[in-house]
Amino acid sequence: MIPNPLVKKLAASQTVLGVAVRQARTVDIARIMKTAGYDFLFIDTEHTPVPADVVSQICQAALGSGIAPIVRTPNLERVHAIHALDSGAQGLVFPHVENADEARHIVDICRYAPAGHRSMAYGLPHVEFASHDPRELMDFVNRETLIAVMLETPEAIERCEEIAAVPGIDILHVGTQDLSAEMGIPGEVGAPAVAQAIERVSRACAAHGKVLGVGGCYDPEFIRRYVTQARARFFVVGSDLGYLLGAARAQSAKVRASLETLG
């Protein structure tokens, strides 16, 4: 049985860092990002059309590399969640969760009984496709699967206490890009209004034993602030697309600047 490294780290009150996978379509991204120092892959199927078979392959490569495969689903539908979980994901992040009813629906489709009504599947990659006692398998998978819900609107922030109270949800993840846009201050992820929203979610998390996550915020100073002031511990701090474009742009600019000195 392959444990989820994030479960142990979060239980020890460690801060974990993830990288969004948007462009990569090959399994080597798992070991590359593990070597780069990340704790988890944030495989984004909401904003990019990553095929299900590619998600499965990357998840299984991650399971063997010591970096947790976490999948952001495109929506709250059961089929997307089950495909990702049965293909090797050790956690799911659900976008645009607005209330406790939606959070309870998520738990229902992601947790095995008695916590939910997830359909049983055998030969899971999480246990190297081996056969196990059903009770033992269900307990292990329930324990090692992280479920995060994204709060991305002022309305969701207003309901954060009721969302945090739902058993079976592990992480409340504030999506600062969409939240700031909804507030009329797009991109201002360090704005006082955004910070106040994060602090409110932080209090809800503390009251109900949940982990606070912050997404869409890449500035180290903002991240440091949210760790120290809001006790956030789950961050997505970059993407493969951003790193590829940034490094490529920097190299081309450096070489062109050097060539300009030739006259």
The geometry reads as globular
Pairing-aware structural class of the strands and helices?
alpha/beta
Mean pLDDT: 96
Largest sheet: 8 strands, parallel, barrel
Helix-strand pattern, N to C?
Answer: HEHEHEHEHHEHHEHHEHEH
Fraction in helix: 40-55%
Q: CA-to-CA gap between the ends?
A: 63 Å
Total of helices: 12
Low-confidence stretches: none
GO molecular function: lyase activity
Pfam families: HpcH_HpaI
Organism: Pigmentiphaga daeguensis
Family: Belongs to the HpcH/HpaI aldolase family.
Can you walk me through this structure?
The protein is α/β, with parallel strands linked by helices and 263 residues long. Helices cover 47% and strands 16% of the residues. The protein contains 12 helices and 8 strands. Strands 1-2-3-4-5-6-7-8 form an 8-stranded parallel β-barrel, surrounded by 10 helices. Helix 2 (28-35) crosses helix 3 (52-63). The longest helix is centred in the last third of the chain and has 21 residues, at 240-260. It is globular and about 75 Å long. The chain starts with a helix and ends with a helix. The mean pLDDT is 96.
